[in-house]
Amino acid sequence: MTATLIRNIGELTTNVTADSDPCGTLRDAAVLIDGGRIAWVGPDADAEAAVAAHREPTHSDRADAQRGAVEPERDGSRFSGLEVVDAGGRAVIPGFVDSHTHTVFGGDRADEFEARMTGTPYAAGGIRRTVAATRAATDDELRARLAGFAAELRAQGTTTFEVKTGYGLDVETEERLARLAAEVTTEVTFLGAHVVPAEFADDRDAYVDLVCGRMLDACAPHSRWVDVFCERGAFTPDESRRVLEAGIARGLLPRVHGNQLGPGEGVRLAVSTGAASVDHCTYLDDADIAALAASDTVATLLPGVEFSTRQPYPDARRMLDAGVTVALASDCNPGSSFTSSMPLMTALAVREMGMTTAEAVWAATAGGARALRLDDVGAIAPGMRADLVLLDAPTRVHLAYRPGVPLVSRVWKDGLAAA
Ligand code: NIG
Ligand code: FE
After folding, report:
1. Site residues for ligand 1, CB cut-off 6 Å
2. What's the pLDDT at 74?
3. Which domains, ranges and CATH numbers included, belong to the chain?
């Protein structure tokens, strides 16, 4: 396999924490990628020595060695291939880890967005419109749409993303969504408990039974996670707990949508079930923040939602100051946040939520990895997956300083050029 050496990196965000810098920043750095993993990280001045130390013998080298030939000079030719990339003093960050998307669905709701911009408030019930369009779509239509979102995510520097079901809400369609999502990511979340579909409006209990029974049975083989929308207009705390406990009993890991549209039990439910993450966290009280700070549950903030629904932004500063682990994600979905841009989430976090750029970039990379309980992405260090983004900018600050500008110059996923 061809190794890649990225040289002359002006600012490298490693996320290997050093002192007060959450980003573990190195200047004038280089990174060696080999076999899809990070092989070495260090000062650019040491790059040649690092390459020499990591070279693999080629077939002809091994043949020479078998014949007892003198070991040849250790130069670049001993690699099966070494691509050298000159970063030109620009910044490199870990690939974004988007721990919350709803990117397998049919139709769109542009009309709803337009109405919202002239004053109609966002409501969870809009989900049912996407359910109708999703049920009507074929597997191939949904697959093509999802492939489009996956390409869109990669082009913007996202190298790991989660995908939720939740726009099928019947056994057959939820199974299709989980299966199709599993074609593009390992991070598939069963969200049968997104809202109660229209046909169960008069019998909520029967729907929760279905979610916890046959629907879970059909989706669990394709899923790693179980999620529930614990919110007024969606599922009550008791219903939500039943769903999470059923998922856990089937070997899925819990995560929660909570405290999006108003105060509620979402955070307490997430912490008490050991959820990896509680997402939205727009309306939190002091007890919620204390419970999060004392737990392993990440608060995943989704500022695309507040931007697109004109809700107040979550108070990230308050959470960070209390010691809560914060992640950023896009929540890409056709209702509340139809954007897949992690650079935009970073800019909004800085501009609207009181985060420093370092905190925001950490939250959008290492924070997302924590929210997905993944320990091999979200940082640039030996042994980690070689998922990196070269920015067309001298520092990561430009992600917030130049909002809306396509600053993602190159993307590597598992060491291979992804965009
Ligand atoms: O995360 N909160 C629940 N689900 C999505 C919205 C889905 C929709 O409106 O279609 C969210 O914001
Ligand atoms: Fe969501």
Report:
1. 102, 126-127, 130, 229, 257, 260, 305, 331, 333-336
2. 45
3. 1-95+379-419 (2.30.40.10), 96-371 (3.20.20.140)
